[in-house]
Amino acid sequence: MTNILYLSAHAILERDEVILLQSLGYNVYSPQTVIESDWVDARDIDKSFAETLKKELGEAPCHKSQISDRFLEVFDIVICEQDFNWLHQNRQRLKGKRAILRTLGQLLSPSESQIVNLEGGRNFEIVRCSPAERTLSTYAGEDAVIRFYKDPARYHGWTGEEPAILGFGNILTRRPEHVSLGFMLQATAGFDFRLYGAGNAGLTASRGMANSEEMPSLYRTHRIYYSHHTIPASYTLSFLEGLMTGAPVVTPGPEVLKHTSLFRAYPEIEALYEVPQLIKNKINGFTPNTIEEAQKVFASLLADQKMASEIGAAGRTLALELFGMETIREQWKKFLG
Asked: In this protein, which residues make up the domain named Spore protein YkvP/CgeB glycosyl transferase-like (predicted)?
């Protein structure tokens, strides 16, 4: 059986992709196969391979800096999220293995340029999470585009009986520019907005953390899901979750990004933001560009549950087509061979 070492930069994505790769029959080791975390529900991860390695080698590294030559020798494939420098710096150790860079949609042109100019060329394949990454001016290429996914069996069944706006996000006040916090707070002012996540103390809407069992139910029962977006990603996992559930999703339009200092430094983040290319306003979601537009959308969805249901259903159709677990599973199966 083929052994895969999965090195993470994003714990929730790591969890999702480890589960998918295991479902394809691979032995997978990643930090979450040995770490217990309050942030991430890892119950569906098979930890037997990690336990076998720990027993046989006496090693259970929790970070790529801890990986010994002896431990690395076990693996046929190494997938590393975001950190192309680690793959390049360890090119000798990775000889004879299939090395893959998994992007998170957050590599801007300076990083792409570094990849292009790596001494000796790149020693790894690149799996992109969005075709929008191709718009970067110094694009370093791709070997595949495989989007992130969500399980439609877990995220489904929107009912929307709670006449309120739901949001998820952590430590938003520490990164207001990245999440367009000012836009979110002004757009939701006067509405029943319920924000779940860690590190949001001081925000009136904050309801504290929701555990992994509560989250699917919150998506199902709230009338509207507001996806704040995180610059410079092409899309976020919570956007996928709301869309897959069938909730009507409202997320900032591209003009909102232009009011941030990040846009002034990196105007390419507008093209990298794929969501406005996927969402058709009033059909499968909304991407308001002004506070007034957002407030009108919220008011109409709260007043008309039938319309909310129709738009949410169209959003779920889109999610199944582009981000469904079986769709992405087949793409990984074809790529890995």
From this structure: 184-320
Which residues have C-beta within 8 Å of that of residue 7, sequence separation ≥ 6?
A: 30, 31, 64, 78, 79, 80, 81, 83, 86
* Rounded-to-integer distance, Cα 152 and Cα 155, Å: 5
* pLDDT mean for each 10 residues of the chain (337 residues): 94 93 96 69 86 94 92 97 97 97 94 96 97 96 98 98 97 96 98 97 96 94 97 96 98 95 92 97 98 98 98 98 98 97
239 within 8 A of 249, measured Cβ to Cβ = yes
Which CATH code, of 1.10.10, 3.40.50, 1.10.3470, 3.30.420, is assigned to 3-149+325-336?
3.40.50
- Joined together, the tokens standing for residue 208 give 């504290």
Distance CA 176, CA 182 (A): 7
Domain 162-323: assigned CATH number: 3.40.50.2000
- What's the rounded Cα separation, in Å, for the pair 230 and 233? 6
